Amino acid sequence: MSLNNVLTIILAGGQGERLYPLTKDRAKPAVPFGGIYRIIDFTLSNCLNSGLRKIVVLTQYKSFSLDRHLRLGWNIFNNELDEYIEQIPPQQRISDQWYQGTADAVYQNIYTLEKEQPELVLILSGDHIYKMDYRNMVRFHHEKRADLTIACMDVPLDEGKRFGIIQTNEENRIVGFHEKPSVPIPSPNNPEVTFASMGIYLFNTRTLVKAIIGDAKQNTNHDFGKNIIPEMIHSKRVYAYPFTDENNSGLSYWRDIGTLDAYWKANMDLVQVSPEFNIYDKNWPIRTYKAQYPPVKTVYQKDLPNEPKNMILNSIVSGGCIISGAKVEGCVLSPDIRVGSNSEIYDSIIMESVRIGQHVKIRKAIIDKSVDIPDYMSIGYDKENDSNSFTVTESGIVVVRKEMPLI
Questions:
Q1: Which residues are annotated as a binding site?
Q2: What is 297-400's CATH number?
Q3: Does the pLDDT at position 19 exceed 90?
Q4: Model-level pTM?
Q5: Over residues 143-164, mean pLDDT
Q6: Count of alpha carbons within 13 angstroms of residue 308, beta-carbon side
Q7: CB 25 within 8 A of CB 351
Q8: Where along the chain do the CATH 3.90.550.10 domains lie?
Q9: Taken in order 386, 391, 396, 400, is the CA torsion positive or negative?
Q10: Per-residue CA distances from 316 to 175, 196, 267 (Å)
């Protein structure tokens, strides 16, 4: 089975409105995650670990930081060996509009398919956290002689309204597809879950081209889930591929971190004693761009009688951080952070180049890059007061936007 005839298209142009203010200055796939990564690194690492070497990233909104990250961290392919990763913003070759939907994004870049002429096209989202070997899906696709294969997994029934819900026959052929139904259909084997699309599509190229051209001529949402797939299941061989996880933690893990609460929770998954998502598997490395930072340093000044000792528990601490007489518990600290003495940080995500003064108290917060937090400030302890200055989610997560002046 050769992967040379597979072109991977990663959709990375979404605005990420529900992640605002983290997406105020960056595209959703470029939002930092897990200390040193960007969200798109997980999809790209899946491609790399699966042996896929022809990758196109379709960008759109606020793409500068994403373009820069891909240039610095993913410039690893050799064009002479017919492998590449290319970023393509809207070209307006076919339309003078921005991408109108997932199918329209591919349609507006149909010239890429004409130029490359792959046998198969794998369409992925650049804003999900998971591990998957796409080779197994390609193998399944060939065995079923499918026109389209969709990766699927069980999700809790009460969450099904956020997904495309799938019904299959005994051969895994899809016989029903309902995009974000108000009442999801329970699985026949387990009434507490429903079978959902993961937004991972493997098309025969001819089938894809015909479908998106036909859709472009109609007044639709130009979306794979809403328009393309429901039409295809009646006329083409469309199969569901059950998600096989490469997480190596004993749990099947896939997260759509489209909201601030989901983003915070997925980061907190990493700091558990037994992390739900395993980023330490040497057999499935997650690649990213790593700036040149010195090692982590903790400071304890013995000659100061009131200087507390550092206490760092169940946390990720990235390179370049200096923690001086502070308590950090259940946190994700990105590179180049300073934490002053007598400060306490709990259950929080602190992004790059944040400066935290002395006697600061932070709880259940997301502090974006380059924020200076003055001495004695408290964040996450008074919801009403926090709401006057910051974004506060329904569950009480406080979000401080990038470079926000607090002094």
A1: 99, 164, 179-180, 197
A2: 2.160.10.10
A3: yes
A4: 0.93
A5: 93
A6: 16
A7: no
A8: 6-269
A9: negative
A10: 45, 32, 10
Looking at domain 6-269, its CATH superfamily turns out to be: Spore Coat Polysaccharide Biosynthesis Protein SpsA; Chain A (3.90.550.10)
Within the chain, which residue ranges are assigned CATH 2.160.10.10? 297-400
φ, ψ for residue 317, nearest 5 deg: -125, 120
- Tokens 């200096």 — which residue? 322
The b-or-e profile of 364-394 (16+ CB within 10 A means b, else e) is: bbbbbbebebeeeeebbeeeeebeeebbbbe
**Helix, strand, coil: what percent of the chain each, to 5?**
25, 30, 50
Model confidence at 168: pLDDT above 80: yes
Single-letter residue type at 70? L
Look-up of token digits 């930092």: 32
DSSP E strand stretches across 118-224: 120-125, 128-130, 148-156, 164-168, 174-179, 193-204
Query: Which segments are annotated as binding site for alpha-D-glucose 1-phosphate?
Result: 99, 164, 179-180, 197
Residue whose C-alpha is closest to residue 125's, from 255, 286, 262, 289: 255
pLDDT at 213 over 90: yes
Identify the pLDDT of residue 368: 97
Pair type for strands 148-156 and 174-179: unpaired
Structural tokens at position 336: 């180049």
Section 81-91 average pLDDT: 88
- pLDDT at position 304 is 62
Distance, in Å, from the CA atom of 60 to the CA atom of 45, rounded to the nearest integer, reads 21
Report the pLDDT value the prediction gives residue 9, as an integer from 0 to 100.
97
